[in-house]
């Protein structure tokens, strides 16, 4: 693996030195660099690349401007640092403020920059909606820049990538939600991931993070809910995953409060002390502050 990674870097270097247009296109369309990315647990960079892919699956968009392809991710202003992180990971692009709606936009344009984006995504997108978008978009790229890049479908083992890379963490940073509500007299912890029409993939995600708990509805809304007591294990896999692959956006703040409330609820002694109850109420309020209306 390490050797493949080095070889790949070498090829890229040779291509850069030679800067031959045709060779570059050929190397990219032959999907190199698996060596680097497949070795996902090694080193922070690979970790973050998978995270950026997961985030883009949720929040990215392969779009166009004046007929030319453009890649963008739009986030609420509180997550502007996430966009700068993405920029560092991709090594290209710019972050802009949309004055009108106070969102921030990470935008990549021009041939050389977009080639890097394409190289990272090609063969590694798992959501069928994104795969289709990407295919059409690379078609536009080829037309605009006279290239002949072939789009590869995802060929890895979905389950392995979901469980063993930060891809899912990126997706959760994009569209995961943590909440707590009252049900009768008990607090119920909830976690959701929503993505219309990706039911097969969401089943796999469901298997990885909740096994027998929770469920998936017809339009691919994965949810796990549970009233917590000391025996509740419903969230163990999700928590295990997020401990190995921590969230990078402000959602990690909501998650931290959610986890705190969960731990307080799991220890019944806390609920009998005034201090414990106050801590719990504060944590619940803090989680729900981030919960979408
Ligand atoms: C915010 O403004 C930008 C630029 O005008 C636009 O492209 C984008 O779609 C807007 N986003 C939302 C959520 O309205
Ligand atoms: C996910 O990975 C963890 C840690 O390696 C492992 O303990 C767990 O069994 C895996 N889960 C699945 C569903 O593969």
UniProtKB/TrEMBL annotation:
N-terminal signal peptide: 1-22
Statement: the UniProt record of this protein carries the keyword Nucleus: no
Sequence ranges assigned to domain Homing endonuclease LAGLIDADG in this UniProt record: 54-138, 168-261
Source lineage: Eukaryota, Metazoa, Porifera, Demospongiae, Heteroscleromorpha
Keyword Coiled coil: no
Any one GO molecular function term: endonuclease activity
Keywords: Mitochondrion, Signal
Pfam families attached to this UniProt entry: LAGLIDADG_1
GO cellular component: mitochondrion
Name under which the protein is recorded: Putative LAGLIDADG protein
Organism: Cinachyrella sp. AS-2010
């Amino acid at each position: 693996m390490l050797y493949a990674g080095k070889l790949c870097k070498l090829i890229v270097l040779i291509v850069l030195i030679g800067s031959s247009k045709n060779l570059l296109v050929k190397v990219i369309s032959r999907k190199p660099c698996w060596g680097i990315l497949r070795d996902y647990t090694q080193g922070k960079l690979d970790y973050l690349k998978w995270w950026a892919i997961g985030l883009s699956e949720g929040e990215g968009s392969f779009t166009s401007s004046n007929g030319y392809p453009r890649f963008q991710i739009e986030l609420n202003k509180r997550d502007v640092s996430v966009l700068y992180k993405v920029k560092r990971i991709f090594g290209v692009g710019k972050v802009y403020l949309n004055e009108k709606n106070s969102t921030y936009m990470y935008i990549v344009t021009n041939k050389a920059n977009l080639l890097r984006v394409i190289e990272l995504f090609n063969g590694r997108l798992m959501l069928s909606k994104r795969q289709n978008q990407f295919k059409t978009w690379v078609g536009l790229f080829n037309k605009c820049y006279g290239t002949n890049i072939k789009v590869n479908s995802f060929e890895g083992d979905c389950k392995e990538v979901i469980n063993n890379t930060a891809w899912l963490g990126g997706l959760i940073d994009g569209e995961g939600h943590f909440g707590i509500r009252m049900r009768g007299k008990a607090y119920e912890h909830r976690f959701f991931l929503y993505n219309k029409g990706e039911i097969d993939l969401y089943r796999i995600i469901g298997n990885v993070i909740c096994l027998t708990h929770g469920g998936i509805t017809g339009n691919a809304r994965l949810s796990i809910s549970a009233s917590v007591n000391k025996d509740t294990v419903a969230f163990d896999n999700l928590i295990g995953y997020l401990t190995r692959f921590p969230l990078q956006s402000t959602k990690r703040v909501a998650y931290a409060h959610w986890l705190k409330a969960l731990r307080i609820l799991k220890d019944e002694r806390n609920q009998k002390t005034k201090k414990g109850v106050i801590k719990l109420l504060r944590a619940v309020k803090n989680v729900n502050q981030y919960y979408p209306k």
